[in-house]
Every structure is written in structure tokens, then in C-alpha cells.
Amino acid sequence: MRLSQGLSVSEDGKLIEHSRCGCGAAFTKVFDADGGEPDPPTGP
After folding, report:
1. Contact (Cβ atoms closer than 8 angstroms) between residue 31 and residue 14
2. What is the pLDDT of residues 10-30, one digit of tens each?
3. Residue 6: left if φ>0, alpha if ψ -120 to 50, beta else—which one?
4. Quick count: other Cβ atoms within 10 Å of Cβ 11?
5. What angle do CA 40, 28, 20 make, to 5 degrees?
6. What does DSSP assign to residue 40?
7. Three-state DSSP class for 1?
8. Assign residue 33 a region: left if phi > 0, alpha if psi is -120 to 50, beta otherwise?
9. In the structure, what pLDDT confidence band is assigned to residue 33 with cuts at 50, 70 and 90?
């Protein structure tokens, strides 16, 4: 289960969602502000 750790905005205007799971792994998901599809999540 991923728990949200917050949101931020990059310098180029992309929305970045930070989350982590109970095992301690951290993930980020980047959304294009132009309404496109999100980039694939990163993490282990």
C-alpha cells in the first residue's frame, strides 16, 4: 500500500507526487501540467 507523502511542483511546471510503501520504498510520479498522461512511477 502506498501512502502519500505530499505534492510538489518542479521548476518546469510538472506536478510531482511523492509516496512510500510500508516496506520503506519511496516512489515519485510526475504529471505533465498540459494534461498529458503521467510518467511511469519511479522506485525499486
Report:
1. yes
2. 888 888 999 998 888 889 888
3. left
4. 5
5. 120
6. P
7. coil
8. alpha
9. low
